[in-house]
Specification:
Mean pLDDT: 97
Strand order of the largest sheet: 3-2-1-4-5-6-10
Oligomer: single chain
Order of helices and strands: EHEHEHEHEHEEHHEEHEEHHH
Helix content: 25-40%
Number of strands: 11
Strand content: 15-25%
Length: 284
C-alpha cells in the first residue's frame, strides 16, 4: 500500500507523517508532496518518497498520485491568507486532487476538514449528520471552502472518500494555544473552544485511513474537554481581561463536536482527553 500525504510541512502534516511511517507494515510506503524539497528532508530520512510540486499544478498532481493506493489530503490555507487563496487550495485543489486520484485508481481518499464547516451551533454537540449552516463568529472563506470541498469530493464516482473534521489542534510545540488568544481575548469568559492534541488527530486520521467499509463516512476528531476563554488565558500564563466577565456567549455550542461516531465505529479514545492531561504529560 502506497499512501500519498499532502500538506506535510504544516502543523498537522509534519506531525502526522512520522506517525504514519512509524506504524507502516512491511511493504507499505509513504509518499509526500511538497513545494520545497529541503523541507521534506526529515521525511525522506524516515523513509518517505518525496515528490516536489504544487498542489495546484495538474502535472504535479499526476506524478503524486501515480501508483498510489490511498491519499490523505492534509493541505489547507487559512489564518490570514486572502479568500481567493483559501478557495484555491481548500476547495479547487482538493477537488482536482480527488479527480486525479480517481483517474489513477486510488482506492481511498481521506479529506482532512474542519469542525468549522458546521457553522452555527445547534444547542448540543454537533454530529456528523448535521448540515452546514453558514454563520457565526468563526465563519469565513476557510470553512466555506472546506465545506464545498467535502460535498464535491463525496460526489465523485469511483473514489472511496472519508472525511475527518478536526478541532483546534495543539501540542508538541505547536503555537496554536498561544495564537488562540487573538480570539479568546474578545470572547465571553465561559465561551469554549474544542481542541485536540496532535497525537489524537494523528490516531484519528490513521483509523479513518485504514478502516474498511467506511466509504462516504464523516468523522469528528476532538478531545473530551473543550476549554473556556478564561482557561486559555490561564494556560498561556496571561492575565485575564476583566471585560471577559462582562460579555455573554452568543452561541455556547459553536463548534463543540460529538465524538461518539468515531469512538463507536473506529475505537477512537483520546490519548490526551484534555489539555490538562497533555500538560501533565509534558506534551504541550
Amino acid at each position: 500500500m502506497l499512501t500519498l500525504v499532502t500538506g506535510t510541512t504544516g502543523q498537522v502534516g509534519r506531525r502526522f507523517v512520522p506517525r504514519l511511517l512509524a506504524q507502516s507494515r512491511p511493504g507499505e510506503q509513504v509518499r509526500v508532496l511538497v513545494r520545497d524539497a529541503a523541507r521534506a528532508e526529515p521525511f525522506a530520512e524516515l523513509g518517505a518518497e518525496v515528490v516536489v510540486g504544487d498542489l495546484r499544478d495538474t502535472e504535479a498532481l499526476g506524478k503524486a498520485v501515480a501508483g498510489a493506493d490511498a491519499v490523505v489530503n492534509v493541505a489547507a490555507a487559512f489564518r490570514g491568507v486572502p479568500d481567493e487563496e483559501a478557495r484555491a487550495v481548500n476547495r479547487d485543489a482538493a477537488v482536482e486532487l480527488g479527480r486525479a486520484a480517481a483517474a489513477s485508481g486510488v482506492r481511498r481518499f481521506v479529506q482532512v476538514s474542519t469542525g468549522l464547516v458546521y457553522g452555527t451551533g445547534r444547542g448540543r454537540p454537533l454530529t456528523e449528520d448535521d448540515e452546514s449552516l453558514p454563520g457565526g463568529s468563526m465563519w469565513g472563506a476557510y470553512p466555506e471552502s472546506k465545506a464545498e470541498a467535502e460535498r464535491s469530493l463525496l460526489g465523485l464516482e469511483g473514489l472511496d472518500v472519508r472525511i475527518a473534521r478536526l478541532p483546534f489542534v495543539y501540542g508538541e510545540g505547536d503555537p496554536h494555544l498561544a495564537q488562540s488568544l487573538m480570539w479568546a481575548k474578545n470572547w465571553a469568559s465561559a465561551q469554549r473552544l474544542h481542541v485536540g492534541h496532535h497525537a489524537d488527530v494523528a490516531q484519528g486520521l490513521l483509523r479513518i485511513l485504514h478502516a474498511p467499509g467506511i466509504a462516504g463516512r464523516v468523522y469528528n476528531i476532538a478531545d473530551d474537554a473543550p476549554v473556556t476563554a478564561v482557561e486559555l488565558h490561564q494556560l498561556n500564563g496571561v492575565e485575564i481581561p476583566g471585560e471577559l466577565y462582562e460579555r455573554v456567549d452568543p452561541d455556547p455550542w459553536l463548534v463543540i463536536m460529538s465524538t461518539e461516531r468515531i469512538r463507536r465505529e473506529l475505537g477512537y479514545r483520546p490519548v490526551y482527553p484534555s489539555v490538562y492531561a497533555a500538560r501533565e504529560a509534558g506534551a504541550l
